[in-house]
Design goal:
The complex is a heterodimer. Chain A is of the alpha/beta class. Chain A is built from twelve helices and five strands. In chain A, strands 1, 2, 3, 4 and 5 form a five-stranded mixed beta sheet that branches. Chain B is α/β, with parallel strands linked by helices. In chain B, a hairpin with a 2-residue loop joins strand 4 and strand 5. The chains are: A alpha/beta, B alpha/beta.
Chain lengths: 391, 273
């Protein structure tokens, strides 16, 4: 059996330990416990229990420290506990051979050590029952829903006031968002969309070729990409790339009290931190969607040329016949809604951060998961609405 | 023991002693700017050395170089007589175990309780049993002046002073020979800073620690330090007891130690007797 990690670590520690391990030696004749080796933190681990024979019948025991190579507070504590135990069994212990320093140290430790029975209250008391867990989880979910609703309301109000007084919006920040979350996302988004187009064209081409319907690849790709996959994939990429960044940024500012500092200076955190992100994403996500659409259709075109003998010229000429303008617009119309959802969820979880680094991490994760789920739910809702109004 | 008389303050390095810290010809540069150049400093065993200097003169960087968290651009660092430049990882770890550090912001792990925080070095560095680690950690907590009530609390539930004390307890966890304190008094009210000063003196006396600290607090300098090293012009410009430095003729030293605040701190020390 290979050694476990803990065993390897322990062996390494033993190797680099300088001190001689602490030991106890019992001589029955003179009723003396000899302390040997180094009674220091790193050398205490192998110290066993009291040697057999020290216990009752009661009588005085001498503890001889003349052989000690070293004593620190941890060693003194162990010694103190040993004396306590002997006394608990009605055996009086006499100390001998300790230096003045060691005696002082033992005294200090004895004065500060907790009584052995003193337990500390564990945080939170007993483990909660399953009913309590369920109840708390429900309450937590309800609270979160309410919190998100009220945050959404606050963001909507801020958006409205921005519409009324557009000059008060921090356009410089909006432009930063456009650059960081839009322009810089182009390479990764372009690559993903291109590959998506390649895959769809390949999979549908394999089927359509059997029926000689090569040309209909164009219909299939353009409609699925423009109506559904283009907007959805763009939103998912942006949620993972930017929504997480929003949560982490605001969360860290929350930890370092920068958000409170903003408030105290009289800057509404919503105006400075949230609104520019929402507006920036609303501007940039439709543009990214168009870009992704182009890249995906381009990927399909390349694949068709290679596999289905469909020249790019024929492919491009087929597009207006295959797909109407309304398909493109229904796809792009979803993007601003997705944008608001991604930005709001990311920012909301940023503001929910309390405490430290742990909380930042967990809220960042939640924000990405919730943003992606929300994007998919909204997409389904759009499909229902579109089928009602018949486009 | 009155260490103030026994130890040689400013004399040549005594080769017979094992100096906890010995810095020789330290040069630290960030890009084109150098904050230390030809800096020599050593710490005598059993003393409390305070490192002072204007903000931004490189005190904290120097501390980090002492505790193996940063490397100087050039120069020699010896800890407990060992050259640190070409130590392998286990040897460096062995040295680290002998050094306890109180970071400026405490640097307690937020996701762990106070007791768990103090137990971390013990769990990582020793093979002690769980109950024994717990016992030792509780003792350190008490040594740092906290009661057992603080043990199950999380760092976010502690006041500034308690936070510092809990961090000090963690620094003491492995019974270090050298205790390094980076601005121990910052963020504490005067009473809290006084109490921490007393605690440091207490621990120094009862545990026989060597202490190196940086501080701006003149009261702390007068009350706690045995020796003060004044960092300016990229080196240790002067070192000596507070009384010596405050009578220095060097205009730079005088400016730092003889300002109105310094005089007030000194008269306070005298009134205390």
């Amino acid at each position: 059996m290979p050694p476990t990690g803990a065993q390897v670590r322990r062996a390494a520690r033993r190797k680099d330990r300088l001190a001689e391990p602490a030991r106890l030696e019992w001589s029955k004749e003179v009723r003396t416990l000899r302390l040997l080796g180094s009674w220091t933190t790193a050398a205490l681990a192998e110290l066993g229990d009291l040697p057999a024979g020290v216990g009752p019948p009661a009588g005085a025991v001498t503890i001889d420290g003349a052989g000690l190579l070293g004593l620190d507070t941890a060693g003194a504590l162990v010694l103190h506990r040993l004396i306590e135990r002997l006394e608990g069994e009605g055996i009086s212990a006499r100390l001998a051979g300790l230096s003045d320093r060691q005696g002082d140290l033992l005294e200090l430790v004895a004065a500060r050590a907790e009584p052995p029975s003193a337990g500390i209250a564990e945080q939170g008391g007993p483990r909660p029952g399953s009913l309590e867990v369920l109840g708390r989880a429900t309450l937590g979910l309800a609270g979160e829903g309410l919190g998100m609703l009220s945050f959404g309301g606050a963001v909507s109000l801020a958006l409205l006031s921005a519409l009324v007084r557009p000059l008060r919006v921090r356009w410089r920040q909006v432009l930063r968002v456009v650059e960081l979350d839009g322009v810089r996302a182009l390479p990764v988004l372009g690559m993903l969309a291109f590959l998506l187009g390649v895959v769809i064209a390949y999979q549908s081409g394999v089927q359509l070729r059997v029926y000689g319907g090569n040309l209909y690849v164009v219909d299939l790709v353009t409609i699925t990409v423009l109506r559904e996959l283009g907007p959805m994939m763009t939103a998912i990429v942006v949620a993972g790339r930017s929504g997480s960044a929003y949560a982490a940024q605001i969360g860290t500012m929350q930890v370092t009290e920068e958000v409170d500092a903003l408030r105290s200076i009289g800057v509404a955190p919503l105006d400075l931190l949230v609104l520019p992100k929402v507006l920036g994403l609303v501007v940039v996500l439709p543009l990214l969607t168009v870009f992704a659409n182009v890249a995906a259709v381009g990927g399909a075109m390349v694949m068709s040329a290679m596999m289905l003998d469909l020249s790019p010229e024929i492919f491009v000429r087929r597009i207006p016949e295959a797909v109407s303008l309304s398909s493109l617009m229904t796809g792009i119309a979803k993007a601003p809604v997705f944008a608001v959802a991604i930005a709001a969820v990311g920012c909301y979880h940023g503001f929910q951060v309390r405490g430290g680094a742990d909380s930042v991490g967990s809220h960042t994760t939640t924000s990405v998961v919730q943003a992606i789920v929300l994007v998919l739910v909204l997409d389904a809702a759009f499909s229902v609405v579109y089928s009602w109004i018949g486009i | 023991m009155d260490g103030k008389q026994e130890l040689a303050w400013d004399g040549p390095l005594d080769q017979a002693l094992e100096h906890p810290v010995e810095l020789r010809g330290i040069r630290t540069c960030f890009g084109a700017t150098c904050i230390h150049d030809g800096l020599d400093l050593w710490v005598n065993p059993g003393e409390i050395l305070a490192l002072v200097g204007a903000s931004g003169c490189g005190k904290s960087v120097l501390l980090r170089e002492m505790i193996l968290l940063a490397r100087p651009t050039a120069g020699r660092v010896r800890l407990f007589g060992e050259e640190v430049a070409n130590l392998d990882a286990p040897a460096a770890n062995r040295l680290r175990r002998r050094i306890g550090i109180l970071f400026q912001q405490g640097a307690l792990f937020n996701s762990l309780t106070v007791l768990e925080n103090i137990s971390v070095p013990l769990k990582e560095q020793t093979d002690l049993s769980r109950p024994r680690i717990r016992d030792i950690a509780l003792l350190k907590l008490r040594l740092a002046g906290l009661s057992a009530d603080a043990a199950p609390k999380y760092p976010s539930q502690l006041s500034g002073g308690m936070h510092k004390r809990a961090a000090l307890a963690r620094a003491l966890a492995m019974d270090p020979d050298l205790l390094v304190l980076d601005e121990p008094g910052t963020g504490l009210d005067p009473a809290g800073a006084d109490a921490l000063d007393e605690l440091i003196q207490d621990l120094h006396q009862s545990l026989g620690l060597t202490v190196v600290m940086t501080t701006h607090d003149l009261d702390t300098l007068w009350r706690v330090s045995h020796r003060v090293a004044f960092l300016a012009e990229r080196r240790i410009l002067a070192s000596g007891t507070m009384a010596e430095l405050s009578e220095s003729d060097d205009p730079k030293v005088a400016a730092y130690f003889q300002g109105p605040r310094a005089r007030a701190a000194r008269s306070l020390e005298w009134n205390r007797g």
